[in-house]
Amino acid sequence: MADIDLDSITNATTASNGTGVFDKLMGSVELHIESLFAKGRISGQDYANVYLSSLQAVLQQSIQFSLAEQRADKEADLINEQIKSEVKSNQEGGILDLEKEKLQKSIDLLNSQIAVEYEKVQSSKQDTIRRNDLNDKQIDKLESEIALTETQDSELTSNGVVDRDYKNTQIGKLEEETLLITAQKDEVAPNAASERALRTIQITKTEEEIDLLQSQDSELLLNGVKDRALKDAQVAKIQEETALVVTQESELSANGTSERALRTAQIDKVTEEIDLLQSQDSELLLNGVEDRKIKLAQEEKIRKERELVQAQTAEVAANASSERGLTDAKTALTNAQITKTEEEIDLLQSQDAELLLSGPVERGLKAAQEAKVDEERALIQAQKNEVAANAASERDLKGAQESKIGSEQTDKRNESIERVKLIQAQTTGFKSDAKQKMLNAMLDTLNAQMATGGDVISSDLAVNSSIKAVANDILTDWGEAGYI
């Protein structure tokens, strides 16, 4: 609560030496009353009433003026502090600068976030490109595998045709051997000397067959599962040949006539081989690509065997004393072939199990790879769409944020300017309001005098100068000239 300074209202010790507001106003009122009394405008009783009413009005207005003056001073001080605060805010390093700095930091943070997101988008694009390249390579690999499978299928079909030709050739060869054996059977009795030469040639042929079979040993590992039937038949054939050789060995030394039985058995054996080869014709379509090399070697063998048959036909009458050596060689060859055939049977059985497992596994793997490729393609497309959508939304967000920040800065500057103007207008209004109240009090006093005493003396300099001074202050505050 503000204290009222009585000295500012009145500090007079006599009727004319006061300097307070009441003293000055009352002195002016007294001059007017005395002037009216001197002119006879008011009598003794009226003089007392006018003086008393003027005294009360002047005292009340003096107190209000003093309070209004204090309030105006306080309000002016408050406004000055507000102006200083606003000026300080607008100065360098003030609140506005701090807010600007804060906004700039927010913008920098958003820019860094946008840069990070952009790097993420670029990294995602690079990952997508690498995945696309990998998928393309996988697709190329799958297409190559499909083409290889188709090529293998066509080669297997062509191998089947080659096998059939080969079997036909073997059938022709066996027919020639049958004719040779028949001729040998007819000629073995009269000319046993030529049999030795024939056996020698057969031994040479057998050694060549052994070398050929050894060269085929590394290649037969690639044969198909169906070769087992052929190997089983070969085992049976070798066993029959072994039994036949043993029979020949026991009979050749004692009875030359048993040669006919041997030739008959050989004819039966050749017939069985023809039947076996015909049964194999439908199964050899499943052999692998490497069978062609074996077939070429076998065709070369057939050619050599044909040459041998021709030589045997020319020299069928050779000496038969070398039969025992031939029998021993055949026995050794037979034992080697039996051992080799058993190893091949074991290998083919293991290959059979692997092929039965590898076929479904490869088909399942291929189907899984194709499904994986489709899923990765769909994922890549979804990532591309997401990247495009994120880039558009980030650009829109950044534009909206920059627009919002600029708008907020403009609004704050305008608000600060308006606040300063309002404070200045309030300061001027408070001052003008206090002065207007004081002017109204003077004019009320003057009106009261005019109502009781008639005309007012225009030459009363004290009254006129007081009213004019207050009015000029008000006009000055309004920006007007310094006169009425």
What does the model show?
There is one protein chain. This protein is mainly alpha-helical and 484 residues long. 83% of the residues lie in helices and 0% in strands. It has nine helices and no strands. It has helices spanning 21-38, 44-90, 95-187, 193-217, 227-252, 259-280, 291-314, 323-453, 461-477.
Helix content: over 70%
What structural category arises from helix and sheet content? mainly alpha
Mean pLDDT: 73
- Give the low-confidence spans: none
Strand count, sense and closure of the main sheet? none
| C-alpha Rg (nearest Å) | 67 Å
The secondary-structure element order is: HHHHHHHHH
Total strands: the figure is 0
Q: How far is the first residue's CA from the last residue's CA?
A: 37 Å
Shape: rod-shaped
Report the total helices: 9
Q: How many independent structural domains?
A: 2
Strand content is under 5%
Region (Disordered): 390-413
Short description:
The chain is an all-alpha fold and 484 residues long. Helix content is 83%, strand content 0%. The two termini are 37 Å apart.
